[in-house]
Design goal:
The structure holds two protein chains of two kinds. Chain A contains eleven helices and one strand. In chain A, helix 1 packs antiparallel against helix 4 and helix 5 runs antiparallel to helix 6. Chain A is an all-alpha fold. By secondary structure, chain B is α+β, with helices and mostly antiparallel strands. Chain B folds into two domains: 30 residues; 88 residues, Jelly Rolls (Sandwich). Chain B is elongated. At the A-B interface, helix 3, strand 1, helix 5, helix 6 and helix 7 of A face helix 1, helix 2, strand 6 and strand 7 of B. Strand 1 of chain A pairs antiparallel with strand 6 of chain B, so a sheet runs across the interface.
Amino acid sequence: MERLKTPFFFVSVAAMILVVLLETGSRFLLAGHDVGAQLAGQAQSLGVAVPAGAQSPPGLGIGYLALVDVIALFTLALMGSGLVLPQRLQGRVQAIATLIFAILLILGALVLLFIAIAKLILMVTLFFAFPFGTIAYLIIWGFFPRGTTTILLSLLMFLKLVFAVFLLLAQPRFVQNKGLVLLTLTSLVCNIVATFLQGIVPVILVSITDALAAILFAIVAIIWAIVLLIGSIPGIVRALQTTAEAAGKRPMQLLNPVPALRRLVSRSLKRA
Amino acid sequence: MLSRRQKIIIIAVFALLVVLYTGAAATGGGSGQGNAGGHQGGIVGWLGGVFGQPPAVAKADLSAPCLSQDTLTVKGSCTVTVKKSTQDTRRLKLHAQAAVTVTSRAPQGTDIVTADVDADKDVSVTVDDKGGDIVITCPGDSCVVTLP
């Protein structure tokens, strides 16, 4: 069996860390651009007058992409833990960490999902409440910085491809791990969906489709978190069984874990 | 090592993703700025149909010195106060019998919005949960605005 090429693996990890950092920090890059001139033009077409001072919104979609990509980062962290943790602890630590991570992710994604739904409803009702609601929508969300987000999404796409390619170079057998392949594809497809939803409508409506994308990403993250949660259960059960077995032995055996480990290894080998 | 078939599949999938991404990014160039005053179709129009208009402001939440029953008799200008509510957005529909100017705070913000309403036309003023003042100004000495 080929060994893990750690330099390639670390490049892959670094790319995914950058992806998550860019996504979580995207609001600082996108928000705050002056859009007063565009607002004045739209206000004129609505037949209303507003003070010329509006700024671009931060958007939700790219930030919510982090909910999906943080799962890939967590998976890499679990793989990386194999490089530092002793083998006898790996299974248990990974199962417990996955369980905690999945629960936290489900809770976080649910909260963010409800926030995105509430924002979407508010945006749509305001937009269609002509003309005072429409102008309020335009002031807050009307001028999405589509050019900047396209650049950001392109950079994210590039980093995700770097992540995938270097992961393959680190260990070609990763391609046989269906979960990892599906997770990588989910991340890449979410990136494409975000780009597509931001591109299909005129600029003044992008905030609405961007909120739709955010809702979709939160749902995808919840589904993946449930998959992780279910996947961690056998590991947790095994860890509990091992602990219970160890607790049932004589004190001397508890102090000396070698026989229990030997049993565990032989059982695993039989199963394999 | 990966087999030749696996390598071809991986390269094809990556190429397909890049092409899809390029296509998605290219759609943004053709959709333009848009016009908020025009008809909105597609996905946003559908969402508008699903969520609908904000509910009307309850009559009990309105107070104004010029308000009598459903009629606002404005002499110069009149301020209609809308009370706070638990609803995020509400709508007050006004019918101007003569041309008027309506000024109100934009919901969910602090900006003041002014709209000129022609004679015999309706205007919907949207207010948020905080409520606020709606100022109706007549260009002449007095005018009548009704709450349909």
